[in-house]
Structure formats: C-alpha cells, structure tokens
Specification:
single chain; two-stranded antiparallel ribbon; 17% strand
Length: 241
C-alpha cells in the first residue's frame, strides 16, 4: 500500500470521527433546548446515522480520489513512455537531463551521455517490411536496457536512435568498458524472427564530462561521436574527445 493511499485512509477515518463528534455535539444541544427530544432520538440521530453515512461517504470519496490519482499517474506514464519499446521517450529523456543538471549544482562528478543508432535500419524496413523494423527496435531496446547498469536512464529519442545517461564511477575508463560491452552485446544477439536469425548491430557515441556541462552540448558531442562510429564502418563505438 502506497503512502498516498495510507494518507487518504487516515484522512477518511479522521473525517468520520470528526463528523460523529460534531453531530453528537449538535444533538446534545438540541436535547437541552427541546424537552420533547428523547435520549433514544439523540442516539439514533447523533450516532447511528453518522456511523452509517460518514464511512460510506468517506469510502466513496476515497475511491474517487484514488481512481483520479491512478489515472493521473497512468497518463503521466503514457506521456513519458515510447509505446513501441516501452523505454522512456524523447520528452522524458530531456526532462530527466534537465532535472539532473539542476540537481548537480552542488555536486561534482563525471556523467556519460551515450547515443546509439541501429545500423542499416532502412534495410530492415525495405527488405523485410515495417513489422520487422518494429521488431528490430523492440529487440535493440531490450538489449541496450539489459547491457547498461540499472542506474542508466535509457530512452528512445527518435526513429532508430536511442540514448542513455548515467553517472560514471571511473570517468572514461568505465564508459569505455560499457560502450564496448554494449556494442558486443547487441552484435552477439541476433533477432530471432520467423525461424530466421537476423544480425543486428549498432553504432555508439559516448561523451564523458562534468555534470555541470549543459546537457544539450554533452548530447551533441555524443551524437557527433556516434556519426564518427558510423563513418568508421559501424558496429563500433567512439568516445568523444
């Protein structure tokens, strides 16, 4: 049970008790002012009715609020998720970079920006159809997600282009190892589709820099490194200077 659900339940119980207490107070005042009112009337009106109505109203209100919160969370998730691959989308990725940049004002540590592009992606669409192209994107998305550390924020930022952002623990040394592992991991796991095994590779660009560098500049450097990897023959990575 989430904290928000617990808070809602506690508030509901509190409102029920308050309503019963206030009702009892008004009924006692009524009893003092009207001699025709009996204690049984007070008991019925002040206790039984609120004890029935208040929890019911609280339940209805709580259920409605929780439903609205769940709907808001689901809408937020859908707005930030790529529907094909299940990764974060471009909007969520850049929101993440902006938030990380703001949070880094008091911290100094290296971060890595990784940009990946599926090699010869047009070939998959032209030779095998768009359904196969979609399958390639889903396949590569899973491999990238599995190959990088859990702390990496991975997203699909465009057609066949993916990006990741993570804090580095060993500057370029760790980034170099991660990039090599990423390229090899994708190349060593061809896509199994309709009884065939389609080889898939990616080109990767990596930029490692201080977390105070504007994210747009860092991502541009990683993107340029990725294009250098493509120009050098694809299925490899390049670390930005």
């Amino acid at each position: 049970m989430g904290n928000r659900t617990k808070q809602t339940i506690v508030r509901g119980i509190g409102l029920t008790l308050v309503s019963v207490t206030l009702s009892a107070g008004f009924m006692l005042l009524w009893y003092e002012l009207d001699s025709n009112v009996t204690r049984e009337d007070i008991l019925t009106v002040a206790v039984l009715i609120p004890m029935i109505c208040a929890p019911l109203c609280t339940y209805i209100g709580m259920k409605s609020r929780l439903k609205m919160e769940a709907l808001a969370l689901e809408n937020k998730r859908m707005a930030e998720t790529d529907p094909l691959t299940g990764l974060a989308n471009r909007r969520a990725f850049f929101d993440h970079l902006a938030a990380e940049h703001v949070a880094s004002e008091t911290e100094h540590h290296p971060v890595a920006h990784i940009v990946c592009d599926v090699d010869h992606f047009k070939h998959f669409n032209d030779q095998h159809g768009h359904a196969t192209g979609d399958a390639v994107l889903v396949h590569v998305a899973r491999l990238i997600h599995d190959a990088l550390p859990q702390r990496a924020f991975v997203a699909r930022i465009g057609g066949e282009e993916f990006a990741a952002h993570l804090n580095c623990r060993a500057d370029e040394d760790e980034a170099d190892v991660l990039a090599e592992h990423l390229v090899d991991h994708v190349a060593n796991h061809p896509l199994a589709l309709n009884g065939a095994r389609l080889p898939v590779t990616i080109s990767v660009g990596v930029f490692v820099g201080n977390n105070h560098l504007p994210p747009a500049r860092a991502l541009k450097a990683a993107d340029e490194a990725m294009y250098a990897a493509k120009a050098n023959g694809r299925n490899q990575y390049v670390l930005a200077a």
